[in-house]
Every structure is written in C-alpha cells, then in structure tokens.
Specification:
Number of helices: 24
Distance between the termini: 60 Å
Strand order of the largest sheet: 3-2-1-6-7-8
Radius of gyration: 30 Å
Structural class: alpha/beta
Low-confidence stretches: 101-122, 354-362, 587-595
C-alpha cells in the first residue's frame, strides 16, 4: 500500500511536533510505502534538517507555510472573475455561518431579535458548509488551471470581496462591525491558511498516485488530503492527538471581536469539512474524542488509537525492585540461601553507592515532577502542597526537572524558585554545616537526571499538578517505570491512569498533599499501584499496539474504498467490465462471495448439435 503522510511542522523535520510518533509509525509499517508531504513552519526548522528516514519512505515533498511563494502569474479578466466569485462565496460563508457550539438563530428569530430555545446548539449549517466546500474546491481548481492564487489572495480584490461579504444582508453582527484593520488581519490570515491550495502536489504522479492520505493533524495539514479526495477520490484518515480547532479557540485572546469571530468561523468550517470528507477520524484519547464530537464529527467515523511510546528505555527501572522493598527481599533470601545473599548485598551496596553519587535527592521519600516549566503546569500549587507534605513527613524531598517553555517560562521558573526559597529555607545539621533546600530545580541531562528513566528511578512517587493537559506522555513514562502517581483530574489523565494511581482536583494543594502523604507512608500500596501501572502502560500505550491499530485501520479504509485506477488487460488496454457497477456503491455487495460450483459443471461439456427446421 502507498500512503501519503501529511504533516505540519513535524515529521520529517528534526524536533518537529508529532515527529516521534510519525517516525515510529513509518518504521513499524515497513511493508507499506510512504510519500511524505510536509509543511515547514520556519527557516530554523528547515535549517535543522530531517531525521534519518527509513527505506520505506519513497519520496518527501516540502512546502513552507511561513513565506509566500508567488509564481509570477497575473490573472486576466476571466480568471479575476472566477477568483472573485469563489473567494466571495468563501467570505460569505464565514460571515453567515454559526460558530461550532453556539446557538444558531432561525430567520424569524433574527428578524425579531429574540433568542432561540435552550439546547439548540448547532454545528455550521448545511448551506454554509456546502458553500465553503465549493468555494475551497473552486479556488483550488483555479490555481490548478491558471496559477496566480497567492498573488490574488494578497490583492486588494480579496479585501474588497471580504468587505462586501461583511456588509451584505444576513451577515452576523460581529462581521458587520469589522473595520479596515480587522479586514486586513483576516485577509492576511486567510492567505496564509490557503497557501496549500496553490501547490503542485495535486497531480497524477503526486497525491493522485497514493492509495490513502493520512493527515497527522487537523487544520492546514489536512487541506492536501481534502484536495486529493476531491480531484482523485483518495480516501483520507485524520489523526488528532490535539484538536486544532480547540487550539485555535485558545489563541488570539487580544484580537478584536470581529477578527475572532471570522477566524473562528473559518477554522470551524474547515474542521467540519475535514470531518465530513474523512473516511476515519483518529483521536488519541477520550478527551480529544469528546471535542471532535462537539465540533460535529460523526461517531461512526471515530476510532480511538492511543499514542505509542517505546517502553525499552524504561524497562531497567520498571523491572527493578524498589528501594523500600529490598530489605524485606534480602531477609527472605538470606533464610533460603546465605551465600547468594552475601553476594547480592555486596552488589546492591555498590549500586547504591554509585546511585547516591549521581542522585543527591533520590530515595524512597522523594517526589518527582517532570515536564515543561510553564504556568499551565501549576508548580505554585505543587510547592504549596509540598509544604504540607514536609509538615507531615519532614524527610521528604521534591525534584522539579524541566526547562522553561513558552514566552513566560523563564519568568515563571524564577517565580517558582523564589517561592521555594521562601517556603523552605535552607536546612543545616549544625552551626558550621551548609544547608540545602528540600526542593531542587534541575534540567533533563544534568547529573542524576540524564534520562527520564533516571529521573523516575530517583523518586518514590511521580506527581502531575497541571491545570491544562492533553495526553500526559510524562505520566505514561512514569507508569513504564513502575512508579505510583498522583495527578490532577485534567485532560486525558483519568483515561491514562485508570485505577493505577491517585487523582485529585486541580488547584487543590491540600488534596494533592494528602494523596502524596498517603503513598509515602504506605510502601506496599506504592508497589502494587506501580506494578499495575506498568502492566496497564505496556498493554495500552506501547508502540506495538499503536502500529497494529493503524495497520488494521489502513486496510479497512482501502477495503471500503472503490477502485479508482482502471484495470488493464495483458495488452495494456482498459477492461470496460473489470469492476461491476455495484462496486461504486458502498455496501455488502462490493465484495461478492464466490458461488459454489457443482462437480458436474467443472468438466467441459460435450457440444450439442441442434437440428434446424
């Protein structure tokens, strides 16, 4: 099977978002061929280069989203008329469509100024969705026939078409209030978002030659898949480990209401068209699945496939015995075999000494936090919770391992360091000894934290204190290491943890502290939860289950898709009746079962001569 993998800012670029799971998927499906169609997000990403590609990647085609590449074509009168018509239809759809999850008033309600009944939240109407899809396909066909789409999208003609749509009767109030700066901002955003329509990927030897398109995310990355389906009938599979429409709703908080409304309508209509055209939608967890259903996805198309992580780097820690269980095991083994016990005690003493040199704060009374340092992780609540933990268990320590992320990451890290110094003054055993803070701030790769497995190995309990979380990969890594966890109830945490860890409400330091203290005081419970967590992670979140699920989904998608290429005979001519007419209609008759042939009909019958009167 030949698969067209569509990515945005990810695979095959080094350090791209979602590049790790794409690489594992491609390497796991070594019997299939992959053509990668990738969008880059900046010059730095292109300069960093690609990851090492496996042999099953036959071709890689890239295009930048951060710069516009004009082809030098200037539209004539007829082409300008086509562009104005299609772009005007697209703008009209943005100005009249209801945003996903909002109540859409009927015509009578709009004229009278009354509200609809409660519970009438709707996805974009059928008329607006069809108008948007037709306009999108019309612009793509114009670019394919004439070229010059990038220059047209950046022209004054596009801004005037958008203004006419905002001033037309029936436009929403937010659109009617758009001013010239708002129109310029929206037109610029649409030009960037519609750049994939002008690419030369939509040819017979391009996306028309693949058997299936797999978009690694929604939004702009799925646009080439929509056009491949429109031009060639190629089936589309869309994976969303993070729903792009939700991400858009969380951005541009300082924009004007008109800009937010028009851009939300565009991304809502694009998402609705992607969900309608896709053969299958693959959320990575139940949290993303609920978002997709809220945005109009058909439940019959949803197939949840959890991201796959490589458990090999964590096998050493996960299969090793915990420090608090060693003394009990040593006593039992000493009674059975004295000689073996002495040898094992010597080996364990040496390992413990080496580990103590590398990890200053490691031990059975250590809490571990690992991740990106940013406000959404709510380290402030974690530090306040740890103050209560220290009051209950004075010997406990906290390791915060991570680097600042985002524009406010450095300032947030500095605030957390100052708070830790205020809550926990340095402790010393005597007047001439140097004290140390029970909270340590470290970075991954430093001594004692060379890998994530080493970090989890240096603690008894792994803590997650986020207020916003998607799919908690760091939590799964702790489960692979066999560690008990305490997490806040956000995102897909409960789905990942199941019954193998403690879950508390977010922004509740007291509940977080009580859960940590209960595990620190009960080593046997920690051991049971850790073993159950490792077994759950190996069963549900391994690379093997992820690859196997996508292999089955690919085969199911192609099996349900009618044959697009003509069947040729021995001379290379198309066979007119190679596929029955029923094959073009989905149903159980697409693959007819062969009839049983009686034995007497297998032999060649004798010719019968008929007398003509």
């Amino acid at each position: 099977m030949r698969i067209g993998l569509l990515t945005e800012g990810g695979y095959p670029y080094v350090g791209g978002e979602g590049g790790v799971w794409c690489d594992r998927l491609v390497r796991g499906l070594d019997r299939h061929e992959f053509d990668v169609y990738a969008f880059s997000t900046g010059q730095a990403q292109e300069d960093a280069g690609w990851v090492e590609l496996p042999p099953q990647v036959q071709r890689v085609r890239t295009a930048p989203l951060w710069v516009a590449e004009e082809d030098g074509v200037v539209h004539g009168r007829r082409a300008r008329r086509r562009f104005t018509e299609h772009y005007g239809e697209l703008a009209a759809a943005l100005c009249t469509a209801a945003e996903p999850g909002t109540a859409q008033k009927s015509g009578t309600a709009q004229r009278r100024g009354i509200a609809e009944k409660p519970g009438t939240a709707q996805k974009p109407g059928t008329a607006e969705a069809d108008r948007f899809a037709n306009a999108l396909h019309g612009l793509a066909e114009l670019s394919r026939d004439e070229g010059g789409l990038v220059a047209a999208l950046r022209s004054e003609q596009a801004v005037r078409a958008l203004e006419r749509a905002c001033r037309a009767p029936g436009a929403r109030r937010a659109a009617r209030e758009a001013r010239v700066p708002d129109l310029l901002t929206v037109a610029d955003h649409l030009e960037r978002a519609l750049r994939p329509l002008s690419l030369d990927w939509y040819e017979e030897d391009g996306l028309g030659a693949v058997d299936l398109c797999h978009a690694a995310s929604g939004g702009i990355a799925a646009l080439p898949g929509l056009l491949a389906r429109h031009f060639f009938g190629v089936p589309l599979v869309v994976t969303e480990y993070g729903v792009r429409l939700r991400t858009h709703y969380l951005t541009r908080p300082d924009a004007s209401p008109a800009v937010r409304s028009l851009l939300a309508a565009f991304h809502g209509l694009l998402t609705a068209e992607t969900y309608r055209a896709a053969s299958y939608l693959v959320p990575g967890n139940a949290h993303a699945r609920r978002w997709q259903e809220r945005c109009g996805a058909d439940r019959a198309k949803l197939r949840t496939i959890h991201p796959g992580l490589d458990a090999t780097p964590f096998a050493r820690v996960g299969e090793d015995r915990r420090p608090e269980d060693r003394e009990k095991d040593e006593e039992r083994e000493k009674q059975e075999k004295q000689e073996k016990q002495e040898k094992q005690e010597k080996q364990e003493k040496q390992e413990k000494q080496e580990k103590q040199e590398k990890q200053e704060h490691a031990g059975p009374h250590t809490l571990v936090w690992l991740g990106r340092v940013e406000p959404a992780k709510d380290l402030v609540s974690l530090l306040h919770a740890f103050a209560e933990v220290r009051a209950a268990e004075p010997g406990t320590r906290l390791r915060i391992v991570g680097r600042p992320s985002g524009p406010g990451g450095e300032a947030y890290l500095g605030h957390c360091r100052a708070l830790a110094a205020q809550l926990f003054p340095d402790e010393a055993d005597g007047p001439y000894a140097v004290g140390r803070n029970p909270v340590s701030f470290e970075e991954l790769g430093s001594p004692g934290a060379e890998t994530t497995a080493d970090v989890h190995a240096g603690g008894a309990v792994t803590v997650l204190s986020s207020v916003v979380e998607g799919f908690p990969v760091g939590l799964i890594e702790a489960m692979f290491c066999g560690r008990a966890t305490v997490s806040t109830d956000v995102g897909a945490v409960v789905e990942v943890i199941g019954g193998t860890g403690l879950v508390v409400p977010p922004r509740n330091p007291r509940a977080l502290a009580e859960a940590c203290v209960s595990l620190l005081r009960d080593p046997e419970r920690r051991a049971r939860l850790g073993a159950a967590a490792r077994a759950r992670a190996l069963e549900l979140f391994s690379v093997e289950q992820n690859v196997a699920a996508f292999r089955g989904l690919y085969l199911e998608t192609v099996a349900r898709t009618p044959v697009r290429r003509p069947v040729l005979d021995g001379a290379g001519d198309p066979q007119p009746f190679a596929a029955p007419a029923e094959a073009h209609v989905p149903g159980h008759w697409t693959e007819p079962t062969p009839r049983a042939v009686p034995t007497w009909a297998v032999e060649t019958p004798e010719p019968v001569t008929e007398t003509v009167r």
